[in-house]
Amino acid sequence: MIKASERVGVHSHIRGLGIRNNEPQPVADGLVGQIEARRAAWLVVQLIKKGKMAGRAILFVGPPGTGKTALAVAIARELGPETPFMALTGSEIYSAELKKTEVLMQAMRKSIGVRIRERRWVYEGVVEKIEYKFDRHPLNPYQQIPVGGIITLKTDKETRTLKVDSNIVYQLLQRGVSEGDVIWIDEETGRVTRAGRVKGYGEYDVGASELVDIPKGPIYKEKEFVYTLTLHDLDEMQSRSESIISLFFGAPEYKEIPPDVRAKVDKTVKEWVENGRAELIPGVLFIDDAHMLDIEAFSFLSRAMESELSPIIILATNRGYTRIRGTDIESPHGMPLDLLDRLLIIKTQPYTPDEIREILKIRAKEEGVELEDTALEELVKLGSERSLRYASQLLAPSKILAEQKGKTTVTVEEVQQASKLFMSTKESAKYLQELEEKMLK
User: Fold this and answer.
1) What ranges in 275-332 are assigned the alpha helix state H?
2) Do 111 and 84 form a contact (C-beta atoms < 8 A)?
3) Same domain, yes or no, for 129 and 227?
4) 332-335 contacts, C-beta under 8 A, 24 or more apart
5) Nearest CA to 297 among 260, 332, 336?
6) Cα gap 85→78, rounded to integer Å
7) What is the CATH number of the domain that holds 86?
8) pLDDT value, residue 202
9) Which residues have C-beta within 8 Å of that of residue 375, sequence separation ≥ 6?
10) Domain co-membership, 74 together with 128
11) Rounded to whole angstroms, how far apart are CA atoms 227 and 205?
């Protein structure tokens, strides 16, 4: 069985660009090498923070496995922990369910957050006593239903008993609220929220409830709620509320959102921002394999860059001169020249053996793989001769092979065994050449 803690993302170790005193460190924040690219990316972060990136985007170019995606993730990390980050590949826009421009539009809207602040009057406290009143069901005399109740709440300052209706009683029962729980009841909507169990009240050796402090001040108070949604979340909420069919049968998980719905959402969000109820959090939309986009998609992105509500768009490609998809024109990176003129282009370089060694150390630590020095050097050799990605992918298989032999540390023997079981791209190409006549075409 795979433990949740063992599901490690490829770039989960990235914490930022590794900049100290405006200079990139050789190894910092999960990044190794690529000094010039990181220096350029740091300048981009400063431009974004100063609001100087309007109408422009970023393009990372370089061979495969040179850290283009890692740099995009690092930029998002530098912009703050709440910065939305949306990643997709150029080929994902060719969906049978949605138009290409709709896929891109939804990705852009998912990359823009809205932090909403709302003040509401609530009843908050620790449940000291709770009593429910039941009566017969109007249609089934053998069944009883809650029709009301009495609940006593307590804070560090006062105790108050409240009569509640059946709607609140249903919610209390559904949430399993019991004495000793901290709850709040929204005065306007009647919504019940269970915050956790108060510390020191009937604590258990094993339990799933979060322990919280006893609420302070009066029971009836004005409370500020802060939550973050994306523009796409608001689009879906608005779209569902306007659909009569969705009220009865539910809305499909994926569908195109009408432009007038997005216009309403944009208008509402602008009003919230002007009234101080919300603030926008521009995020990062990262499109890998950007050469897979076609001329229609490139045209859409060119217009999108000029929009008021536009995320930071980062493209990446490993292609040189190639044909622009949807045309017969060859261009650098397979992109229109007028779009390239609007991009800040950052190049990445192949890693040196020393840099590969440091990256493998970081990945091994992230994946919980103990490596002998000889095993690490074998992986560095494979990374230099074949590819860094190939060497990184051998970490997990090598660990499993070592565990099957009762070892806690991976040796060079397991690395060599894994490399024989799994081919690199170069070996695969050589294999195809050797058996070309026997392979299907």
Assistant:
1) 295-304
2) yes
3) yes
4) 333/59, 333/61, 333/290, 333/291, 334/290, 334/291, 335/59, 335/290, 335/291, 335/293, 335/298
5) 336
6) 12
7) 3.40.50.300
8) 59
9) 398, 410, 411, 412, 414, 415
10) no
11) 32
Query: Which tokens hold the place of 374?
Result: 């000889």
Residue 2 falls within a domain, yes or no?
Answer: no
Domain boundary among 347, 370, 394: 347
- Quick one: which H or E segment has residue 160? strand 159-165
Residue type present at position 381: K
- Output the domain CATH number for residue 235: 2.40.50.360
Query: What's the average pLDDT block by block, 10 residues per block, for the chain (441 residues)?
Result: 43 74 80 84 83 77 84 83 82 79 86 83 87 79 79 88 86 84 83 82 56 85 81 81 47 67 86 85 85 87 79 87 86 86 87 87 85 89 85 88 88 88 80 71 60
- Among 241, 275, 309, the domain-final residue is 275
Task: Quote the pLDDT of residue 201.
Answer: 67
Distance CA 158, CA 217 (A): 8
**Residues 325, 213: Cα–Cα separation, whole Å:** 59
- The per-residue b/e assignment along 55-65, b for 16 or more CB within 10 angstroms, e otherwise, is eebbbbbbeeb
Q: What's the start-to-end Cα distance of the chain, in Å?
A: 39
269 in the same domain as 130? yes
Q: CA 52 → CA 102, 308, 328, 368, distances in Å? A: 27, 13, 35, 41
> Is the separation of the CB atoms in 227 and 305 below 8 Å?
no
Model pTM greater than 0.70?
no
Element (H, E) at 237: helix 231-242
The closest of 112, 102, 40, 52 to 284, measured between CA atoms, is 112
Residues 63 and 139 in one domain: no
Q: Rounded to 5 degrees, what angle do the CA atoms 330, 97, 297 make? A: 25
Q: Do 225 and 241 fall within a single domain? A: yes
Pair (154, 268) in one structural domain? yes
Domain assignment present for 96: yes
Name beta bridge partners: 221: 122
Residue 28 has a pLDDT of 78
Q: Is residue 440 part of a domain?
A: no
Instruction: List, in order, residues 6 or more apart from 191 with CB less than 8 Å away.
Output: 171, 185
Where in the sequence is the domain holding 44, given as residue range(s)? Answer: 9-111+283-347
Q: Are residues 165 and 217 in the same domain?
A: yes
Report the CATH number that the domain containing residue 395 is assigned in CATH.
1.10.8.60
